[in-house]
Amino acid sequence: MGNVAVGLSQGDFSVIMKLLNENLTEGQPPPGVVSKPGADSPEVKEQPVKKGTASSVSAAQGETKAITAPKIPATTDQSGSKLKFGFKLDSVSASLFSGDTEMTKEVCEHDRAKCLGKFELAGFLVEGEMMNDNSMKVKVILKDTSLEDMRPPKQNGITSTIERSPWSRMIQRSKSGSHSGSASPNMIDVSFIQAKNQDKNVDVKINSIHVCVCTEFLMSIADFFVKGMPPAPKEPPQLPSAKKGVKKAPVKEKPKLAPPPESEMSITVSLGRPDIILIEDPSSYDSNAIILETEMMFKMRVTPDATTMGGSIKDLQLYSCVFNKRDSTKTQILPPCEINLHSNAPYGQGQHMDIQMTDMILSISPATIRTLTAISSGLAPAQETEEGSKSSAVPDNLWAVKTLAETNFWFLNFTVPEAEDAAAVELEASGEQPVEEEEVTHGEQGPAHKDVLLLAAPVIVVKLEGGIGKRTVPLLIVETGFQGEVRDWSSELHVESTVNLEVAYYNEALAVWEPVLEPVHENNKRHKWEIAMQVAQNNDVLLIDEDDVDLPIQPPKMSITVKSEDILNTTITKTCLDVLSNLGKAFNDAYNLVEPTVKPGEVMSPYLIQNDTGLDLTIKLDNEFETEDTLETSELVNGTVNGQNGMPPQADSGRVHLPAGKALPVFGRRHNALVRKASIIKATQEGDEKKILFQIDQFGVTREVTINRAEKKLFEINKKTEYPAGDKWAVLVSVEASYGRKTISLRSLVQVHNHMSQAVEVFYKKGEKDLVSVGRADPGKSLPLPLPALYTYTSEIYFKPVSDRYGICTNGVNWRTASESGLFPLTCATKDGHASFYMNVNPTPEKVLFEDSSEMNRECLTLNLHPTVILHNLLPFSLSCLLETKIDGGSQDATEEVHLDRGENYALYNASVNKSSMEFKMKYRGLQWTGRRQIQADVPELSIWTFEATNEKGEKKHLDLGLHNKQGSGTLDISLYSPYWMINKTGMPLAYRGNDAEVTLEHPADYKDIVLFSFKAKSLFSKKKDNKEKNGKGTVSEKKTKVKEMKQAGKASLKIRDSEWSDKFSLDVVGSSGTVQCKTKTGSYECGVRIDMTSSGLSKIVTFTPFYMLVNTTETTVSCKEPVDSALWLDVAPGECLPFWPQQTGKEMKLKAKVKLSDEETGPFLINTAHTTLLKLDNEYGGLDVECHVSESAMVTTIGPYKHGCASVLLVNQAENLSISFSQSGVGKTHSLGGKQAVLYTWEDALGKRELVWSCGEKKDERNDLTKDGCGDVFYLPDCKLFWVSFLDGPQRVLLFTEDMAVVGLVQKEVEYTFERIDQEINLSLRGVGLSLVNNINQTEVAFMGITSSGIIWEEKKKRYKALNLKTLVILEAAYQKYLIELAAGKSPSSRVTLENKMEVDFEEMQMYKPHKRGIRRSFVEGVWVQYKTSPHQLQLHAKINRLQFDNQLAGAVFPTVLSPLPPPKSVAADSVPKPFTEVSLMLSKHEHSHMTQIKYFKVLIQEMALKVDQGFLNAIISLFSADVPISREQETKQFEEDWKQTNLPLVEIVGVSLSHGKKNFYDHLHFSPIKVHLSFSLQGGGEDGDKPTAIQANVLNVFLQSVGVVLTDVQDVVFKLGYFERNHSFYNNSQLSSEMTSHYVGQAIKQMYVLVLGLDVLGNPFGLLRGLTEGVGDLFYEPYQGAIQGPEEFAEGLALGVRSLFGHAVGGAAGAASRITGTLGKGIAVLTFDDDYQKKRRQQLNKRPANAREGFARGGKGLIMGVFDGVTGIVRKPMEGAKQEGVGGFFKGMGKGLVGVVTRPTSGVIDFASTSLDGIKRIVDLSDEIRRLRPPRRFHKDLIIRPYIHTEAEGYAILQETEKGRYVDDDYVAHAVVTKDGKNVLVVTDKRIVFASKGELLGQWNCEFTYTWVDLKEPPRVISKGIEVVLKDKEKKKFLFGGSSSKKEIHITDKKTAEWIVEKIHEQMERGR
Fold this sequence. Notes:
The chain is an alpha+beta fold. It has 25 helices and 106 strands.
């Protein structure tokens, strides 16, 4: 046959499919109608012929006989040929066209412009021969297949060229042929051979396939078929079967086995290497592509005994490249790996399969993600425009009564089941499900099939890479392994698998991997973290619980359990945070298709050697650098090179000449693929060292440098300076790492860094006078100084701005003495009489390594150039500044004028501190204001600057602004600001006044700009300065201007229009909002106030908003009016928010509304109570939907249009001849609803009681508030029953009346899914979780957060297992332990025991017999437990976090534990069940007939907690998470712009009302528990001088506290009580709910913070006693431990927990409060002694809580004696100390201190005694376990690498740190052994010595009993029977306190293994020491 071509349009395809569909469905019943099988049912007797049956084969053969086959070669077989056949087809092609075919002509031709693509099969051949003995040979060949993109746009691009682009052909034969073996001429070869014994052999070979995937084209082809399919016929509503709940368990039939095959059959399929290419951009040849290469083989053999299968995927690999430069740009994504399959299924038995994978290493870089995103963007469907947002039209006759025939309610479209099924429906309505007995067939069962699949992937490595262009480095690595077993997938699936996991990040500076997810360390062995998963499929079995037969709970169809016994420990370091943020940004950019800076294909060299020494060098590279290939470029360049790996061509046997100022790119040797190691982290911590030699030819110096991490090393060279004589020259080698490139800079010790926006030229003095230029330091850049410039006679460096106007600075900077002299001001004089150029040089030294030592004992220096003054305009308008500076030696001033926009900053290069003055001019409120000031350094940080202006009448006006002076690192920052920005959004004229009642500030209603406000100077403290001050030289300096300090703490009053002044309110409570009332003669005005802070922290934004506001969200103007005679209509335009000032007074504020264009008004409604009401209008608008939001500072009434669902109720009466009368409670008017009728109803009186009253027949006044779902029945006649059901249909509440119970049952079933069977249940449980926060830059562990599992608990089984209360639990556990001990001792105790609480249990059976017979079990609660269940219509989530603790891991922490749950008082705890710290329970339903979600139950319970923070910890956290780079000046301006934009927001946005109607959900019951937090705060913190209050690092917070004038004080145990948040039976969208919830909790917290924390902490805690004695007072507050939470299941079953009323706490409360009060008194008096040491000792004493009352009294007594002794001796000691430090003045100062100390020290001691003793008392009452750190802080290593945490190491490291107050802190810890059982004596081994440490009895400090360095030991220690023997050198004999003259020392260690291990460690260290 020749060529066959088919053209098919989408229309043609649609017609064909429609015809087929109609023909095939003819005669079948319509969908949804189920025909009952019976005697006369029209069942189809004859089945259609199945594919592959004998009849179909013979039919096919019958057809083929008609075809004449081409000649086939004769076979040599004797049997002779029965039949030969053949079929040949040159080609068949199908072209697809979009659109329809025009049927206008007889022969239709398709429009080529509409052609989508063409599919073609070429060279199709079938030939075969059948012999007389039934043997057969058949061959099928397909030469080529192609799929071509024929769309016209493609032909305008590349594809229009003569040779078609590779993109236009999706599928074709590969031109290169098969990669494996000889190329086959055919694409597909199939051969089939059948032997005479019927054995068959099928061989399929697929070769040379080239598949080029363009997703966009494939989508358009898919679109052709999908849209061409005829639409499916609409199904009528499903009629639920009446017997829906009654399911018979399937009858188990005896399985019949198919007979085994009589012959053998083997099938072989091989796929030669195909080209599978994913293309990013089909229109470009240079497009990125992802290429998949592999080779596949599959074999299957079927014999009478078994079926075996084997298969392999070999060399599976993925790489990305630029398509037409494949070889040069190839980047591996997946290196070659293999997957092998083996399967064996013996006859009649299950399959046994095994799938094995070799190591898979997947590298994912941003470039790969970018390519994949671009490819997949073709798959995304085009976004359709949303039309749903427009409001739908209001139906006609909205409020009219309609007959049910006119309506189409889904809930009435059921066909009612027949009468005999009513019982089943009744059961269904009640939720019960009857169970029929299972029928089990007796007789012989067939064998059960046991299918097994084993799956193993031992190593899967995923690397996330970051980098530039092609040069990427792995930054995050995930190493995992997987093993799984799948059983019985054909019957009852069961899966078991384990996954192990380890995650690390790459620390480029150290060139090592550091752990993120740590390995688990157990029994001195390390393994990856493991998690196990089980999947079980459940059969249809109904469980009936013996306790409660009525409520069967169906098991889920599938349950998945994910569990880990290992603790999940993660470590996040500062470097890791940077890596993650960089990766996140890179991947986000790639996902959003941001263009990369470096194009693919460009190669970055991994090493760059930069010569900045100023001398020519010769570099010699070691053989770790590649030398085989050469670079294409022979030039020395500064960065990127194009070409391959290798060494530069000018290298002569590894030596390269490198001139000064040039850079040399170098490549490392290429290593083979990743070698398998036990762990990646370990593998890379061995390091990758490379060496270079640099040689300074001039001096003949050679030095070797090792490169493996980012560091700076100093090398001295043998060139010496003449002055100072003998000083050696030095070269600094600095290695910096960034994105896989290490830059090795060779430079001198000194570099200049320019922080100015002005370029600066640098000079040095050559000889006596000549100044020689070194180069220029550009803005923001560094300039390394060459060696000859440093080692000069004067060692001075000179600077000059790059400008013709200025000369070189007069003084030079001597770099040798610079770091001692500090900030160095420089003046560059001008040439033309202008002001000079001023700058500051700030020298910062940095410690560096010296040559090959590991000590940082040398320094390099950076000279930082800063402008002297930077001016910041923080006012909301622009201003100009005139700068005047006295010219040196001259009388006149040089001036410079600068214009500053709002938020802008400017560096004043011509300003000199204390010499220049500024004059500011600005236009504000129509006046020109000026202020003049000298630039001074020595002024308060915040000061007042008064500006003056003259108004039209010639009166002088004054304006107080603030000036913020901050001396940074080299620059004085001067900011001009106003303390308060007042914004008036009320629409009324306002006036403000501060403490000074005379001065008022008017703010007109129409003034939209910001009004500046500040409190007058009268209320400020002015800092007095001495008029004359001596300067350093003894002369008296000039009198300085008196500067007033700015302390803006005060209260303001407000006046609205003609009202009286309001009460005073604070303007400083940032973040809070509230209302202010101003009384008038008739009533009062009320307005809202919100206070925010600008980003600088200097200005507060005070926004005044109206208290009442009206928002119109309809599309037409709405008019509103108060129901009083004098009121006028107020028009509110669509989308507008208007202030509303009511005239009426009283509790109820009412309003009525109408649409402006109509006359009909609504009834009155409230605007000061939260409600949502639809107000009826009998016109085309239907009604207005009014919603009132109430917040702290506003009442916002939103008026919206009628929407479906906003009516109060839809009443539907389905009863035939029964009418129902109904009305609103308290409203006289009654309405009637006849049989088979429905009507919409909304409340007629919006102010009245919202309750529907209905009557029917004899039944009168039934009431329903229409808020919740429910159903019921009433007798309207003595023997006639009417049923009612209330439910939600989407957002609309429906009340349905019916006489037919079946309808109620069916409706309930459709809307109430409580008993729907769960499809999938997922249980996740983790033993514990740990998160360690480490600042690896300064080597400290900052914090550790742990989620831990519980101790042992006992549970009893009622319906499900429930924990027993604490008292019972303790008794049970004690009895069980006793039972176990007796068993272990070989006795046979009775397992049945009667306990002291009259409980009787049997430990062998685990049964309780008294007081109830129940099962019991011993268990524990996991750290994290989550259960997630889903079914078609519901979702359940239940989660628990058992216990969360957050520890402060810093040394010297005031509070070692930051956050921990507080246990309830013992009296309460004993009778209550242990509760998790946090529990969440959620159950929601999704309705079939609407898109609305109904949240049935959502409850969150958080237990009481203690939060204890010290300043040191806060600072450590801030420095861990904040970037090291300060905010740039550009960012500062941007932040200011954001602040300014916030002040211009329209009223709608300030109020936060959303104008769009988002999707709302219905919340039946939502409850978030109250939060109770005990807050303690200390100003002290960890560190060396821990007794000194630490400064807050957060700049903004500091400025805020300073400007308010608040001094932070220590806070102890202040209780925050935040009330609960609850919503019932209401609609909310997500944003509404989250904003209400946030403002609820945050608002409370902020207010309590201001009252409790920033109020003065004078006498302990004033709420202390009250708090203990009046527990649980507060309307929205209950104790969290009283809160009950149900799991979704319990809730569903309607179980309710009764909550006991709890008491206790009073005694402990009283003692504790007294202790707190005395504690603070003691602290205050200790401060009076002015003595730092005394305060420090006292603090250390008090921070160690007494372990018991005895220790409490003992320690208190010691404090009293210490106080008296110190006080008396202080009279003598203090003057002597003072004299030593400060001379004569110091003597008298010390005398004063001593005398004060005599009085205060003993007093302080007495008070501390009371305080500590009381603490002891409280411990006896309370007996709650003291909370300790979860684990000791991490051990750090000298090499700065963070390694996985090991608990024993950390313990020993901590002991070494504390021993003798840190005397051995510089030693490197090696190991330790605990010597005594109590753990109080420990032997510690360091790299230098052994230390025997013991713990002090009273104060718990670690003391050193003895220590020996390796030099002291005569020989290495050895193991003896008692422990270890140490032999000392003779001179050490005397040192023993109790060892006689023996030179031996015995250390007793009972465990021999420990002794051997510790001795081995000592031997290792002694060897190293040598």
